[in-house]
Design goal:
The chain is α+β, with helices and mostly antiparallel strands. It has 21 helices and twelve strands.
């Protein structure tokens, strides 16, 4: 078997047919609403009149979380070491006004929270969504967790600037945990101020929603509120302290528990509580696992190993680098959480590091699968106190299978990106690896190379006619391009049962035309910092249909060669 690293660089071997993550059955026009959630949307629209119009009718519940676990007995938002509990009660600190609702996700507000969009235009919503007023039924909590940061155990971390407001059970029966980020100090704030600035909040808002629309498992964002509260940040840690402004994102996940949630309990020898948290997570979120099953923790571990491999393969398939893959930022539900200095890779480069604070490149895009393995090893260490010797040995065997699961999944994803059907595993692995190597040599744009391969006709491919296809023009400058193209065309010709339009449609459904490139976010942020949120709104709208060509996006140059200044855009851990 290849090592994970070589798999990442030269992409893969072995696969079966691929169920596209984001099914777009027929999408004839550049209709913004024409994407994979159509069925859901129209189903929902039928009951749109039943949406909650008055916020007084909206409530959350903290009952389950509070009754299931011991809660910190000490009150108050002063920094302390907390033991023997999962949560501390913590009241958000109101942000200095005037407050402004900068962005809102209709999809989340209506589709998850059952709220009428009009309700978000009220002062009540502004106050709830910024922590200035509490939701009905809310007992805000800050979660105690730890984590391995950049390879080392960092001890107690916890929600230092986030407050869980409670759970909401929506009309579809889904349970979502609402959280504010940037809502003030908690017992876990360490030396932080409990705040988040506009730039990082815009990025989290946009990227969580964009990732959802790409079909990648992720936390969601309901709204973004900006304030006039001064927040001081040295963005690039070079002594250049600036005054920025505080913002709060209202974000949602089925659960915010992380690998670090278990690690802190294990590290502190709180084994009963570790068992309690595990039993809760399994009962609530791993419903196929029988709670009487003697191997339930092993089955849980095996599921997390599998899902984490899938998540990281999915990240790689859209060129997403998380930026800070610490164990406290790895969800037990294997969804993408805690958006910070992430980046979508532009020129294909396995050494792409989105975070300028990551000097050693620990979290470079090509290392993410290995880092996933590291984090799962740490999860296993955390579980050891509740596993028998035999189960520990079995868990190690499960972990050994991680590389193969990852490899299998990434091959499926890249095969779909190239429109390959059927099983010609070894040849397909070679074809994919060959392409990625050429992309690396020619610095071809990751997103647009695959997208233009989806849009190009068979005839254009045969004639190397790549007019106006800038990424393919770059790629075709490689000296081995014709060799690769011949292999690819031969492979496609063996897919006799389908026409070129079928191939193009299948490929377009998995190869986005638009991703949240850092320069795009940066441009929107510059305007947002001057209270112009039009570009945030534009990006939010466009990225909700990333697989569909849209006129406004084309006009904005979102599928064009990135501007020169894009290379100078830097993001850091400062947020
Ligand atoms: P992150 O890098 O955002 O995943 O955060 C790592 C840890 O630092 C978490 O425990 C956060 O809650 C905490 N943290 C980050 N920024 C702040 C801040 N401004 N104030 C308080 N805690 C923070
Ligand atoms: Mg975090």
């Amino acid at each position: 078997m290849c090592t994970i690293h070589s798999v990442l660089v030269f992409a893969v071997v072995a696969a079966t047919s691929f169920p596209p993550a984001h099914v777009l059955e027929s999408c004839p026009s550049a209709d913004h609403d024409c994407h994979g959630h159509d069925t859901f949307k129209s189903r929902w629209n039928m009951s749109a009149s039943n949406l909650i119009k008055d916020l007084d009718q909206f409530s959350v519940s903290c009952k389950k979380l509070i009754e299931s676990f011991p809660v910190d007995e000490v009150d108050g938002n002063f920094v302390r070491t907390v033991k023997n509990c999962i949560f501390s009660k913590s009241i958000p600190t109101p942000l200095k006004g005037p407050l402004r609702l900068a962005a809102v996700s209709k999809d989340v507000i209506e589709g998850i929270l059952d709220l009428d969009l009009a309700a978000t235009q009220s002062d009540d919503f502004l106050n709830y969504a910024s922590g200035n007023r509490l939701l009905q039924g809310s007992v805000p909590l800050a979660h105690r967790y730890g984590g391995h940061q950049f390879g080392y155990w960092a001890g107690q971390l916890g929600d230092g600037r986030a407050h869980s407001l409670g759970q909401y059970t929506n009309r579809k029966g889904e349970v979502w945990e609402l959280q504010l980020k940037g809502s003030g100090k908690t017992p876990y704030s360490r030396s932080g101020d409990g705040r988040a600035v506009i730039r990082s909040s815009v990025r989290e808002f946009l990227c969580s929603e964009a990732m959802f629309s790409l079909g990648v498992p992720t936390s969601r964002a309901a709204s973004l509120v900006v304030s006039e509260e001064p927040v001081f940040r040295d963005q690039f840690y070079n002594g250049n302290m600036k005054t920025e402004r505080g913002a709060v994102v209202l974000r949602l996940a089925k659960s915010w528990f992380r690998i670090g949630s278990l690690e802190i309990l294990s590290q502190s020898g709180e084994v009963d509580l570790l068992r309690k948290l595990l039993d809760f997570v399994i009962k609530e979120h791993f419903t196929s696992i029988d709670s009487d099953e003697p191997d339930k923790y092993l089955v849980f571990y095996s599921t997390v190993v599998n899902e984490t491999a899938h998540l990281i393969a999915h990240w790689m398939s859209v060129g997403f680098a998380h930026g800070v893959c610490n164990t406290d930022n790895f969800s037990l539900l294997s969804i993408t959480i805690d958006y910070g200095p992430f980046g979508f890779m532009e020129s294909y480069n396995p050494d792409f590091v989105p975070n300028t604070s990551d000097d050693a490149g620990r979290y470079r895009i090509g290392a993410q699968a290995d880092v996933g393995l590291f984090n799962l090893e740490k999860l296993l260490v955390a579980l050891n106190p509740v596993l028998s010797r035999k189960q520990q040995r079995e868990a190690k065997m499960i972990l050994k299978g991680y590389g193969e699961i990852y490899q299998f999944r990434i091959q499926q994803l890249f095969k779909a990106k190239l429109g390959l059907l059927g099983e010609e595993e070894e040849d397909d692995g070679y074809l994919i690896a060959f392409l990625l190597k050429m992309m690396e040599d020619t610095r071809s744009d990751f997103t647009m190379t695959f997208r233009q391969l989806s849009e190009v006709s068979d005839q254009q491919l045969h004639h190397w006619n790549f007019t106006q296809m800038w990424a393919l023009e770059d790629l075709s400058s490689h000296e081995l391009f014709s060799d690769w193209l011949n292999l690819y065309l031969l492979r496609l010709s063996r897919q006799q049962n389908e026409g070129e339009v079928d191939r193009q449609n299948r490929m377009k459904n998995v190869n986005p035309r638009y991703v949240l490139r850092n320069w795009m976010a940066e441009s929107a942020i510059r305007k947002a910092e001057n209270n112009d949120f039009s570009e945030v709104e534009l990006l939010h709208r466009i990225l909700s249909s990333p697989f569909v060509t849209q006129e406004t996006a084309e006009e904005a140059g979102y599928a064009a060669r990135p501007p020169q200044w894009a290379r100078r855009v830097k993001v850091s851990c400062s947020s």
